[in-house]
């Protein structure tokens, strides 16, 4: 793993950690913020994906979901979705 990838991973983990500050109703209408457990699970899964080196970790989109989860989408070099995951607490 090169320095650019390590920096990217650190930035993405910081982003996931920042979701603890997301308020409920963060999107128009009914939405809940990710719980601490959901954030911890998302960080574990993200680290596992990054360490596997199966996917180009630089081609990942992360976002909270209205249901309180965190969504990951991994893309290939042609911007096609290879994998979509929604992480929840349990």
Molecular structure report:
With 90 residues, this protein is an alpha+beta fold. It has one domain (3-87). The chain has helices at 3-18, 36-52; strands at 60-64, 70-75, 81-87. Strands 1-2-3 form a 3-stranded antiparallel beta sheet. Helix 1 (3-18) packs antiparallel against helix 2 (36-52). It is globular, with a radius of gyration of 13 Å. The protein starts with a helix and ends with a strand.
What topology emerges from the helices and strands here?
Layout: H1 3-18, H2 36-52, E1 60-64, E2 70-75, E3 81-87
Antiparallel strand pairs: 1-2, 2-3
Helix pairs in contact: 1-2
Largest sheet: 3 strands, antiparallel
The oligomerization state is single chain
| Parts with pLDDT < 50 across at least 5 consecutive residues | none
What count of structural domains? 1
Structural class given helices, strands, pairing? alpha+beta
| Count of runs of 4 or more consecutive helical residues | 2
User: Beta fraction of the residues?
Assistant: 15-25%
Number of strands: 3
Write down the secondary-structure element order: HHEEE
Computed Rg: 13 Å
User: How far is the N terminus from the C terminus?
Assistant: 31 Å
Trace the largest sheet across and list its strands: 1-2-3
Whole-number average pLDDT?
89
Question: Given the C-alpha coordinates, what overall shape results?
Answer: globular
The helix fraction, in percent, is 25-40%
């Amino acid at each position: 793993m090169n320095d650019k990838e390590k920096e990217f991973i650190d930035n993405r983990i910081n982003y996931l950690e920042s979701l603890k500050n997301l308020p409920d109703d963060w999107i128009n209408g009914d939405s809940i913020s990710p719980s601490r457990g959901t954030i911890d699970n998302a960080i574990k899964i993200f680290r596992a994906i990054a360490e596997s080196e199966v996917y180009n970790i630089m081609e990942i989109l992360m976002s909270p979901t209205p249901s309180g989860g965190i969504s990951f989408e991994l893309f290939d070099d042609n911007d096609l979705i290879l994998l979509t995951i929604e992480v929840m607490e349990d």
